[in-house]
Amino acid sequence: MKRRNYWVLFAILLLALINLSPSKQSTLIRNEEGIIPEPVSLPNPKEVQEPGHFRVAVQMNEGEFLRLQQWNYEYMNQFADQVELVNLPSGESYRDLLQQFELGESPDVLLLDNVWIRKFASSGYLLPAERYYSSPLSGEVLSVTLGQNEWNGYLWGVPFDTDPYVFAYNPALIKELGLDHPPQSADDWEKLLSSFKKQSRIPSLLAVDISEPYAALSLLWQFGGNAAAGSPPFEMSEGMQRGIRYLEELRPYLLRYDTEAQSASNVWKRIYDGEVAICLTRSSQIRDGQHPRMEAFIPDSGNTGTTMWSYGRSFVVSSKSPNAEAAGAWIEEMTGAGRQREWHETTGHLPVLKSLYFEFERNKIPAWVPASLVGSKPDALPVGSLLPEQMEQFARLTTDFMNSRLTLEQYGKEITQIGRDK
Fold first, then answer.
1. Which residues cross the membrane (predicted)?
2. pLDDT tens for each residue of 248-280
């Protein structure tokens, strides 16, 4: 009896040992039930990632393009990416580029004027900047520049530079015309214009390329037009009506280098010789005309919002680009603080990084750049996908008005219609 019990106990122990032993089948079942196997060592994706090959299209003058080419060569020598940099002909419009996007033939990266960012983004041709650009933008970049890059809750471009309109003037002539400082309000312009009409020694009060719509819009803002932040630019307010009247009064006293083919150097010489009191131009052009008898200023916006238009350019990435990540790394290299500082020293275009404005001497930022440029609000300039077309209409109307092909009343009615056209 005892022997039989031993055999039973032996059989039970044998079965227990068999159940406790691992097998291929039991391991497979347990893995399928969610037990994680030992981790497998994988290669670093950066080690096996193929070098990027993408195309960047810009539209620059020869000097600017040569400097960007140099930066691009330096980038390719440091990284494995191959970047084809193309300078588009000056006659090629953004509408031509839109057609390339429609046909799927667009460059991977494009340097756009900020006013066109929303047009391209709303058409579905761009990637949100957050998809390819790793550095934070908000807080460090000029708000007025970021505001033009926003649409539908996203940022669609990485700001590269800014180039606001400024006034260059002869201080002695301004004082001769009865002001201790250049005009900074509509009332100052009224006093200056009234004083100018009473004298005959100074041939021209203002030099301006009136065919530039943003120059004309800046003048209207200076004369009392819709300068408040967020104000519709073409609404026929009382201030806009007054601005148009001033523009008409100023017409006989303009040196218009859009029609007289005046070169910039000739305008600077006329300011120096006392033949022109003020010139409206972009800040990047001021450096070429600097001399002891010329100063520059940007009217401080204060609480009124906009006073002068500020051009700006930003890098964007095509939504069809297969190299968005590599393109973002290239853009980050081209827009860093060191590059911004060098770009300003080389071209005169102002940087978009706020930190560079707090060390004027080191970064060679002109002392006449007001603090309001750094502290400007995101909505200081009008933005919208229709703005490029609206400004083209405004340019044609203003040219006709300044050439007396439109009356004051006709000009006002046509401007009002711009804001109503959808």
1. none
2. 999 999 998 754 445 666 888 899 999 999 999
